[in-house]
Amino acid sequence: QVQLVESGGGLVQPGGSLRLSCTASGIIIDIYNMGWYRQAPGKQRELVARLTTTGSTNYTDSVKGRFTISRDNAKSTVYLQMNSLKPEDTAVYYCRADSLWYAYWGQGTQVTVSS
User: Which of 23, 49, 112, 113 stands 20 to 30 A from 40 (CA)?
Assistant: First the structure.
C-alpha cells in the first residue's frame, strides 16, 4: 500500500519560515518525480515545486527564490523549505509522487501565514 504523509505545517507570521516534509511508504521515491501542490479556499490547485528523478526543478513564479524542494531518497522523504512566507502562501499543501503511469497524493497539511 502506498502512503504519502505530510508534516510540518502550521501557523507562521509573515516573513517566517517552515519546512514541510513528505515521507513515502510503499514506493521507492528514487524512481518518482516528487512535487508539492497547494490549494487555498476558492482557488485552483496549483503546482508549487517539483523535483524530477534527474534532479530538475520547477517552481511556480510566486515562490521562486523563497521556496526550495529537495529529497532524501535514503529517508524516502521530500522536503519543501519555505522562507519569507507571505499571507498569500496560506493553503493546504499536498505532496505528490508521479511517474508516467500513476500519481500518488498525500493527505495535505495546512499552512497559515498570518500576523
Answer: 23
CA–CA separation, 111 and 114 (whole Å):
10
Distance CA 108, CA 55 (A): 24
Let me know: does 112 contact 69? Beta carbons within 8 Å: no
DSSP strands (E only) in the chain: 3-7, 10-12, 18-25, 33-39, 46-51, 57-59, 67-72, 77-82, 91-98, 103-105, 109-113
Q: pLDDT (tens digit, 0 to 9) for every residue of the chain, 115 residues total?
A: 999 999 999 999 999 999 999 999 999 999 999 999 999 999 999 999 999 999 999 999 999 999 999 999 999 999 999 999 999 999 999 999 999 999 999 999 999 999 9
